[in-house]
């Protein structure tokens, strides 16, 4: 899967309350959640992000709550992929489970600027900054996670198993 | 092969002789859990799998605790979805308002989690149950849906970090201070993906309530789980309470740790974590003069009997500062009743505090004490992120129940010694 998009940059320890504040968790409707994506960090984000854009962040992205509403809000806002120095573990699982590709790449997280256009090959982890021409290699996605992506998310993967054992 | 307690619990659940950090395993789960926020998403995903019934109706716990008693129409709809599913599936462990509590106070109290268990919950503070010597970790709703269908889930076996707490605790220093201090040392991603094993003389002396508080906040350092080896205190807690058979696992002396930290707890004062990260911990003596508008005592971190008793000890015969609202939230109906019996409510009400029915409430900015722009709150909860308790320009300071109660009295962040 190859993606290309404009970069929005964020700092370290972006928490799930910033990604989607609890006051909006009285619904799980992706469209509603998307309207408030990143609101407490940047209230203008949901309005300015375009389909296909890419989020780039520092360490420990998605720390805090287990709310799957966080990757759902990001995905529904149109973001195609998140690249960060590192991810909090529950967010990491959730993102794959709901089909939001995420990659760890500390160098790209440091060097790529907001507004640059980057392309990301999710399978190989190759990242190219189309604005500067510089290339990066993200930590490859573990094989097991790739099986989940190939099945279209965890539910697809589990469905495959359930139909085998009945 | 020498193993840590985390590795042993996971190996047993995976049906293996041994496991190593980094290994991917499929493990049987003993209990899965969701609440009124994560439950609806899990239920919708479960429906897509194509299994009519959950794998075991006794082992799926649903606790509507976050926005309950429901704060608005939307949250009432979410709670209804969970309730209808629980009834349709004939779940044994659905806890209705009036019989419920904050999930991580409730499940240990009800004996639904025990030593040696593997538990996943669609709530990040599921790591609380490590205090009993279980492997417990938070997952998202989709992972939970899969486990509701299969009774198992996948894990990557984490590396373990060991935290040794030596010495004797000072007055008004408890589990909350030890964990805030630890997060202050290693940072909010200091234990990313790892198991945090707490041990040492000070842990052996810590009550079960204090241990639950410590393991509760392992996630605040990025940890996969927090865990404490079971001992006599564990035995006393689980005997006659835990509903399923349990196993006491211990770490082998030669087990491997990625890092070992040793702290002398005699040097640790009550801690306060400044906005907007739990790692901004400092001793209360170095807090400076910070005026507060609200104080909250409750949550899955510090909403248990010991916490309420401590708050009452500080508040006895005192008045809450005229500028301050003090909101006290017992963690479960059981705790509520016990606190009432012990006369703690009398002390709280005399002081001018409000006592709420069990709920997460303000902890996540839900209801029952939301902050306005520019307001400051000292709270026994576990997160002080931007906007966590209300307006994005409000502030939350994390502390133990004694410091929180004392601060409610003085109107600014204070050591309990200031009012006693
Ligand atoms: S009390 Fe707070 S941290 Fe605990 S489960 Fe409720 S919202 Fe989460």
Largest sheet of chain B: 5 strands, parallel
**Cα-atom Rg of chain B, whole angstroms?**
20 Å
Tell me what the CATH architecture of the largest domain in chain B is: 2-Layer Sandwich
Shape of chain B: globular
Alpha-carbon distance between the two ends of chain B: 52 Å
Number of alpha- plus pi-helical segments of chain A: 8
| Strand residue percentage of chain A | 15-25%
Task: Give a quick rundown of the structure.
Chain A contains 8 helices and 7 strands, in the order βαααβαβαβαβββαα. Chain A has 166 residues and is of the alpha/beta class. Chain A has a 7-stranded mixed sheet with strand order 4-3-2-1-5-6-7.
Describe, in plain words, how this protein is organized in 3D:
Chain A is α/β, with parallel strands linked by helices. Helix content of chain A is 35%, strand content 19%. In chain A, strands 4-3-2-1-5-6-7 form a seven-stranded mixed beta sheet. Chain A is globular, with a radius of gyration of 15 Å. With 420 residues, chain B is of the alpha/beta class. In chain B, helix 2 crosses helix 5. The longest helix of chain B has 16 residues. Chain B is globular and about 55 Å long. At the A-B interface, helix 4, helix 5 and helix 8 of A face helix 2, helix 3 and helix 5 of B. The complex binds iron/sulfur cluster. Iron/sulfur cluster binds next to helix 4 and helix 10 of chain B.
Characteristic terms for this protein:
heterodimer; A: 166 residues; alpha/beta; 7-stranded mixed sheet; 8 helices; globular; B: 420 residues; Aconitase, domain 3; 2 domains; 5-stranded parallel sheet; 14 helices; 18% strand; binds iron/sulfur cluster
What is the strand and helix layout of this fold?
The complex is a heterodimer of chains A (166) and B (420).
Chain A: E1 2-9, H1 16-19, H2 30-35, H3 45-48, E2 54-57, H4 69-76, E3 81-84, H5 89-98, E4 102-104, H6 106-111, E5 117-121, E6 126-129, E7 135-137, H7 143-150, H8 154-165
Parallel strand pairs in A: 1-2, 2-3, 3-4
Antiparallel strand pairs in A: 1-5, 5-6, 6-7
Chain B: H1 5-14, E1 24-28, E2 31-35, H2 38-49, E3 60-63, H3 73-88, E4 93-94, H4 103-109, E5 118-121, E6 135-138, H5 141-150, E7 152-156, E8 160-166, H6 175-186, E9 195-199, H7 201-204, H8 208-216, E10 225-227, H9 232-238, E11 259-264, E12 271-273, E13 281-283, E14 294-297, H10 299-302, H11 305-315, E15 325-328, H12 333-341, H13 344-351, E16 354-355, E17 376-379, E18 395-398, H14 401-410
Parallel strand pairs in B: 2-3, 2-5, 3-4, 5-6, 8-9, 8-11, 9-10, 14-15, 14-17, 15-16, 17-18
Antiparallel strand pairs in B: 1-7, 12-13
The complex binds iron/sulfur cluster (SF4).
